[in-house]
Amino acid sequence: MRIGPVPLPPIWREGLLGFELASLMRHPLFRDAPEAPAARPVMLIPGFLTGDAQMATLGSWLRRSGHRTHRSGIRLNVDCSAASTTRLERRLEDFVRREGEPAVLIGQSRGGLFARVLAVRRPDLVRAVVTLGSPHANPYAVHPLVWTQGAAIAALAALGVPGLASRHCRSGACCDDFMRDLAAPLSPGMQFLSIYSKRDGIVAWEACLDESAVNAEVLSTHCGMAVNTAVYELLDVALHLASGQDAAARAPAVVRAAA
Fold first, then answer.
1. What number of other Cβ atoms are within 10 A of residue 199's Cβ?
2. What is the pTM of this model?
3. Residues 6 or more apart whose Cβ sits within 8 Å of residue 220
4. Who contacts 195 (Cβ-Cβ below 8 Å, separation ≥6)?
5. Per-residue pLDDT reduced to its tens digit, 95-132
6. Cα pseudo-dihedral 212, 216, 219, 220, rounded to 10
7. What's the pLDDT tens digit per position in 170-219?
8. What are the beta bridge partners of residue 203?
9. Are 34 and 227 in contact (CB under 8 A)?
10. Which of 10, 68, 224, 230 is placed for a possible disulfide with 17 were both Cys, Cβ 3.0 to 4.6 Å?
């Protein structure tokens, strides 16, 4: 299957999500969450057609490691990108003000796009960004099934259902600023890890490669990235780097993963 020149793997691979979750539950890294050298505030942002519940397993592991997590407040990620990031920015401001330090943003798929845009707009609020299967280079390089779901949402928006992305989010001016910031470079020194998989059955993995990021490959489905053992291993490294402790020893692990 292809979208223009970009090949996509079979979507049936997404059915392996259950095996990824079962493998994670048995892994020592998850069962005995490593204590963070420095606890950090972490905001979790879910992907398209999902909500905060999607990130619950990851959030529980982070909290057991000592980090302080915060939900995005998204019950179903179907709204306009511009409106969503505006709400997220206000929520992030409140979170950072309470915590007294910038937050780490972890976003899956579309949630990772929101995280990247927030880091561009508000580097004062963001310590580091980690994205899971997020198509930064082309948000529309996704499986045709996602296009069909998007068209259905746009049709409901045209009928007047509130809180939904419309066709103008693709061809209109409402999201021009969002698309501009999505392509903008991050501030110097901003830590940015983009995790992708060539087994991704939803997003074209090539679209996840970002010049501003360390791009790290894992063996994972798209939907399973928030419950994939290899992803948790990279997150453990990334959060140590964000803490500024043990960075010299752990940085090579990210470099190897990105090679």
1. 18
2. 0.87
3. 20, 133, 197, 199, 200, 228, 230, 231
4. 130, 131, 132, 133, 208, 216, 217, 218, 225, 231, 234
5. 999 999 999 999 999 999 999 999 999 999 999 999 99
6. -40
7. 556 767 899 999 999 999 999 999 999 999 999 999 999 999 999 999 99
8. 142
9. no
10. 224
Name the CATH superfamily, with its identifier, for domain 2-258.
Alpha/Beta hydrolase fold, catalytic domain (3.40.50.1820)
pLDDT digits (tens, 9 = 90+) for 206-252: 999 999 999 999 999 999 999 999 999 999 999 987 766 544 444 44
Query: What pLDDT, in 10s, does the model give residues 14-47?
Result: 889 999 999 999 999 999 999 998 999 999 999 9
DSSP category for residue 142: B
Q: How many angstroms separate the CA atoms of 81 and 74, rounded?
A: 12
Sequence letter at residue 151: A
Instruction: State the Cα–Cα distance between residues 154 and 54, nearest whole angstrom.
Output: 23
The three-state secondary structure class of 199 is: coil
Among all chains, which residue has been given the structure tokens 């890890």? 193
Which pLDDT score, from 0 to 100, does residue 80 have? 86
Task: Please give the pLDDT value at position 246.
Answer: 47
Nearest to 105 by CA among 50, 159, 41: 41
Distance of CA 24 to the CA centre of its chain: 19
Pairing of strands 191-196, 2-3: unpaired
